[in-house]
Specification:
about 475 residues, mainly alpha, 18 helices, about 0% strand
C-alpha cells in the first residue's frame, strides 16, 4: 500500500544559490563520484581483517588497533562540515579533486609506515581527504540531476555502489592480506585515485560556475572544538574498555563535554557556523541524522568485533574471514537502486521502518558468533545486509530533501553523523567485547554487543519514525 504523502517541512536555512540549471549527469562522471565515495567507505572496513596482521607487524595492542579505525573516522567526522560548506560555495568537483590528492597522500604514508604512530598519522590524513570527498560527491550529484524523483533514483545508484564498500572491504582486505601483505590495502588506493582524478578533470566543466554567495571566513573554531570533542570522547571510551575507569578516562570524558559546550557556543555566535543549530528544527532532517549515526555505530561496531572473533578466536585466516562476510554483499548489490526507485515513488518512511525493523533482530543474532557454524554466522550478516540496502539510500535522500539547496551541508552533516557513529561504534563495541585473545570470554561478551546493538536499532526505529512523520502519514519528495 502506498504511503500517504505530505510535503517536506520548509528548511529554516536560506538555500544557497545553485550555479547552473540541472543538466543531468553522465555515467562516467557518476561512476567517478561513486568511486571516490566507495574508496572512503572501503577504507573504513578494509582494515578490519588486516588488524591482527598489523598488530603482529607493528607490535600494536587492542587499544592501538581500535585507533587504526578511529583515527580515520574521527578525522573525517571532524572536518566534514567544513568541507560540506566549501562544497556548497565552490565547484564541488574541485573540492572532490583536492580530496583525492589528500587521500592518496594518506594512503602512501600508511603503506610505508614503519610504526604504529606513523600509520595512525597516515590514517588521519586519509580521513581529511575523505572529509572532502563525501560532501563534494553528493553536492555535485544534487546540482546536476534535475528533479527530486530523478535525484532519488540517482542517489539509489550512488548509495548502492558506496554501500558495497562495507562488505567488499573485508573480502578485498582478506584477499590482499593473505596474498601480498597488509600494506597493499593502502597502496591499492593509488591507481583508483589516479583514475578518479582523471574522471573529475574531464567532468570539471559540468559544475564550473561558482555559487553566487559571499565567501565567509571558515569556521575554524567550530572545526577545532567539534573535532576535539569527538576525539576525546572516542579516546575516553577506548580507555575505559581496555584499562577500566580511572582518572585519565574521566579527564578525557570531561574534556569532551567541555569542548561540546564550547562548540555549541561557537556555532551560536559565528555568522557562518559549521553546523547551523536551526537545521535541527526540521524533524525529517533530525530523524535522518539520528538514523545515520545509529546505523554506522551498530553496523561498523559489529563488523569490528566480528572480524576479530573470526580470526583471533575461531582461527580463520584473513581470506576466510573476508569470504565469511559474503552474505552482507549480496543484498547490497541489488537493493539500493531498487530502494531508490521506491523512495522516488512513495517517500522514504516505509523503507526506513522496514529496514530498521529488520536490522534490530539481525544484530540481535550476533551472539551466534559464539558457535562454530558458518551458517549460523551468515544469518545475522545477511539480515544486516538487507537492512543496510534500504537504510542507506533512504537516509541520504531524506537528509538532502529536508534542506533544499544545501546539499553540501546536508551531505556533510549526514556523513559526519555516520563517521561519528563508526568511531563510537568501534570504541564502544571494542570496549564491551574486550581482548579477543581471551577467547571464550570475548565470545561471551558478544551477547552484550548483540543486546546493545539491537536496543539501539529499536530506539532508532522509534525515534526516526516519529521524527520523520510530518502531521499524519508518510513523507514524500516534493516535485
Amino acid at each position: 500500500m502506498q504511503e500517504p504523502t505530505t510535503q517536506v517541512a520548509r528548511s529554516p536555512l536560506p538555500a544557497a544559490t545553485t550555479s547552473p540549471a540541472p543538466i543531468g549527469i553522465a555515467l562516467p562522471l557518476l561512476l567517478t563520484l561513486c568511486s571516490g565515495m566507495f574508496l572512503v567507505l572501503l577504507d573504513v572496513s578494509v582494515v578490519n581483517v588486516a588488524l591482527p596482521s598489523i598488530g603482529r607487524s607493528l607490535g600494536a595492542g587492542p587499544a592501538a588497533l581500535s585507533w587504526v579505525v578511529d583515527a580515520y573516522t574521527v578525522s573525517i567526522a571532524g572536518l566534514l562540515l567544513l568541507a560540506g560548506g566549501l562544497a556548497d560555495r565552490a565547484n564541488p568537483l574541485r573540492v572532490f579533486g583536492f580530496g583525492l590528492l589528500l587521500f592518496a597522500a594518506g594512503s602512501t604514508i600508511c603503506a610505508v609506515a614503519p610504526g604504529i604512530a606513523t600509520l595512525l598519522a597516515g590514517r588521519a590524513v586519509q580521513g581529511a581527504g575523505g572529509a572532502a570527498l563525501l560532501p563534494a560527491s553528493l553536492a555535485a550529484i544534487t546540482r546536476l540531476v534535475p528533479g527530486p524523483a530523478a535525484r532519488a533514483r540517482t542517489l539509489g545508484v550512488w548509495s548502492g555502489i558506496s554501500a558495497l564498500a562495507l562488505p567488499a572491504g573485508p573480502l578485498l582486505g582478506g584477499l590482499i592480506v593473505a596474498g601480498i601483505g597488509w600494506r597493499w590495502i593502502f597502496a591499492i588506493n593509488l591507481p583508483v585515485v589516479a583514475a578518479a582524478l582523471l574522471g573529475s578533470w574531464f567532468g570539471r566543466h559540468a559544475t564550473s560556475r561558482p555559487v553566487r554567495t559571499a565567501a565567509p571566513r571558515p569556521d575554524l573554531a567550530g572545526a577545532v572544538t567539534g573535532g576535539g570533542c569527538l576525539a576525546l570522547l572516542v579516546s575516553g571510551v577506548i580507555r575505559i574498555g581496555h584499562s577500566g575507569w580511572g582518572s585519565m578516562a574521566a579527564l578525557l570524558l570531561i574534556g569532551s563535554a567541555l569542548l561540546l559546550l564550547a562548540f555549541l557556543a561557537v556555532e551560536r555566535r559565528v555568522a557562518q557556523p559549521l553546523l547551523p543549530i536551526a537545521v535541527f528544527r526540521v524533524r525529517p532532517f533530525t530523524g535522518a541524522v539520528l538514523g545515520s549515526l545509529s546505523m554506522n555505530l551498530v553496523c561498523n561496531g559489529v563488523l569490528f568485533v566480528t572480524t576479530l572473533a573470526l580470526q583471533v578466536v575461531h582461527g580463520l585466516d584473513p581470506l576466510q574471514a573476508g569470504l565469511t562476510m559474503l552474505p552482507l554483499l549480496v543484498p547490497l548489490v541489488a537493493l539500493p537502486p531498487l530502494a531508490g526507485r521506491r523512495i522516488a515513488r512513495n517517500g522514504p518512511l516505509g523503507t526506513l521502518v522496514v529496514s530498521f525493523a529488520l536490522a534490530a533482530p539481525s544484530v540481535g543474532c550476533l551472539s551466534l558468533l559464539g558457535t562454530d557454524s558458518v551458517w549460523a554466522w551468515w544469518v545475522p550478516l545477511f539480515g544486516i545486509g538487507l537492512a543496510l540496502g534500504g537504510l542507506t539510500p533512504a537516509l541520504v535522500t531524506m537528509t538532502v530533501a529536508a534542506v533544499p539547496g544545501r546539499a553540501g551541508l546536508a551531505g556533510g552533516v549526514n556523513n559526519a553523523a555516520r563517521q561519528t557513529g563508526t568511531a563510537l561504534g568501534v570504541a564502544l563495541f571494542g570496549a564491551i567485547a574486550g581482548d579477543p585473545l581471551r577467547g571464550s570470554e570475548f565470545l561471551d561478551r558478544l551477547i552484550w554487543c548483540a543486546a546493545v546493538g539491537a536496543a539501539l536499532f529499536t530506539l532508532a526505529l522509534v525515534m526516526s519514525a516519529r521524527a520523520l512523520v510530518v502531521r499524519r502519514g508518510g513523507l514524500s519528495l516534493p516535485e
